[in-house]
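Supplementary notes for students who missed Thursday's class. We covered one full example, reproduced here. Read the sequence, then the structure, then the short commentary at the end.
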Amino acid sequence: MKKIMFGAALAAISLSSPALADTISVAPGEGAQERLQEALIVAQPGDTVELGAGRFVLTDGLSLDVDGVTVRGAGQDASVLDFTGQLAAGEGLLVTSDNVTLRDFAVENSKGDGIKSKGADNIVYARLRVEWTGGPKETNGSYGVYPVESVGVLIDGVIVKGASDAGIYVGQSKQIIVRNSVAMYNVAGIEIENSRDARVTGNYVSRNTGGILVFDLPNLPNLVNAGNFGGNVRVDHNLIIANDTPNFAPKGNIVASVRKGTGVMVMANENVEVADNVIADNGTAGVLVVAYPLSFGDAKYNPYPRNVLIDDSNSFVRNGRDPQYEGGAQMAAAFGGALPPVIWDGLGKNALVVANGIAALSLGLAAQGTDVSQAHPAPAAGVGKDLRLAPLAPVTLPDAIEIRAQQ
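Structure (token representation):
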């Protein structure tokens, strides 16, 4: 056992020294900001930075740029990184290195995003909690956990509450699994954006404005996916219940347009399968499939959804009773008080496949004169009845990632 003093830190950090890796233990208390950041700086590949139980009172964001480091706490309610007094508007923790594992701790009240990783391949977020403890507010940070531009992302057992954009967000990435997690009181519970080969499974998504969003947006840089755009996303075995929080996103954000009461929303994406979910008590729609509604200058961008399968294995209960768009109440009344489980804006050719006669309503926007230059008029409701898409290839991650998540 050896002890090292970091700069002016008032407490020592203990290091145990196995053959190939060290554990750097950092306790809460006086000087926690400096001691914890220095531990993240001096860590070597294979090391673990171990957070003691208690509350770390921090005034600035933290960063990690060393490959192969594990940051491990005593539990998602036991080791808390408290950014309530954060002075700058950045994220709580920023990771820019590969093969990093973040597990068993919490981040509270960061001024910006809770935990962001950028260009961090094979990253694991496991059993974390990110929360804005004052409840839904426009001034909360945008994202809870926020990996972007990565190949290999595993989010497992994470809890996020209060994000003013998306609780769990993965963007411009590929080979993604989001599972066994909880997203509540965010604008978007879980969002997969401009990403390919993703599976969202076994999550509980409730009390958000919108539950699970699968989006493609124009004009986004993407160093990971050829062509820059997303697809091959499977949303399965989730509980998507009562997403009824009023939208509190700052004006101008794309998610500021998400209607309260949206269960699943697919926008301008391709090869998306929604299967084996329980989708209940979402006032606007169980599933909403739409085109990107704004003008854009990205010549490669396709604003229409393509090959979206809503499978009959989903359970739809009491959705569409309070649709939050113009004319929605009258439309629901015309359907006996609730809209069909699946709503499609009617834009895009070969956009939607609804299996085994699930009731679907096309809003027929092209037929109503919507100014969309390449719009294809919608077929009648029930489009694609009894059809099936080719099954999506399963998303797999390297065994090493799974091992790190379970440790």
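Commentary. Confidence is low (pLDDT under 50) at residues 1-19, 366-387. The first strand starts at residue 2 and ends at 4. If anything here is unclear, bring it to office hours.
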